[in-house]
Amino acid sequence: MNETKKRILAAAEELLSQKGAAATTISEIAKKAKVADSHAYQYFKGKEGLVFSIAEKRLKATLSNYKEQLAGIPDPKSKLSKFIWYGLHYNDTHQDYVRNLVFDYRSNLEFYNSPAYKLVQKHAEICGAILKEGVEKGHFRDDINLYLVREIIYGTIDAQSMSCVLTNEIEKTTDDWEEIISLIFRMLEPAPPSIRSKSKQQKIIEAAEQVFAEFGFDKAKISKIAMRAGVAEGSIYDYFKNKEGLLFSISKMRIDNLDKIMKDSFVIKEPAQKLKRLLKLHFSIFARNRNFLKIFVFDTLLNRNFYNSEAHVIYKNYQTRFLKIIDEGIKKGAFRPDLNARLFKDMFLGTCMHMALRWIIFPDKPFDKLHEIDTITDMFTSVALNRESIES
After folding, report:
1. Percentage of the chain surpassing pLDDT 70?
2. Looking at the domain assignment, is residue 355 inside a domain?
3. pTM
4. Which domain holds residue 154?
């Protein structure tokens, strides 16, 4: 890259961080770079092309640095630890990039069709490869959706960086690195049998639900249900009289669960159930209303003016619900005594934002939103639990 182009990119990145893309002109960028306006147009296709070129430059640098950072690290747990540390460290030391990433890249739908976004996907592939290696080598549990784990990792890095750069809640994101990887590794490690195990009957019902939905009741075979549940075909008849009895058991299980949730909605005393309820309610606001989801993510969270508005004060007050429930759970011994309530809250809200972005950007993809919400809710609730209290 020649010096003139470098100067233009550096000037643009600085001005974007200070004023935002909408308030920055090509003439201002050229003046700061000490070049003629025509030079900027010579290298870039308008202001948007220049803005995305800044992102492309940064992403190429991080991809190159990641290869160096991860080289020679043999085990996947150490690789993932370093991957997360470097993501936090890079954002700590490139705060202009964080502001531009939030307000000028992620908030622009055209960014997701740009060459820069292709580099974001390559970045995600590195994380995905580490997670997959961890499963294959037995370091990480094999019954978890690694795509959602990746959402948690990137959501956490983003939320931490926003708390540092935009709201000044923390001085450095890397100060929380050890707690972050502790929470993530707890999500990835095989759960104790008392938490992990499901009854054979429940496995059969859940497998039947999948098979009936996929093939229809008439075409669904008991052998297929048994295979998916991981049980012998004959053992199904130990619990259910026939295929129709199995079918009706699905409705019974779901209605029983729904009835319990409805009762808990009015009076919930147990901290873990309170937390799970709050997490699901937070998701439900967005899952039920795609229009609000789009407005809240693109026009609110990714808008620099939001963080100086009364609306942000209200949003911050809303976030204290998470903190109060976690503090209550710690006092009652239900949650880990070393659980960082602020970090937990940031990790969850960052994960929600990343999932919401995916739902909006790829509306035609067949995402099972309800299943994803249930999975994320269970993962975050589980990682908060005081397992010593559960097992005693």
Report:
1. 93
2. no
3. 0.75
4. 53-190
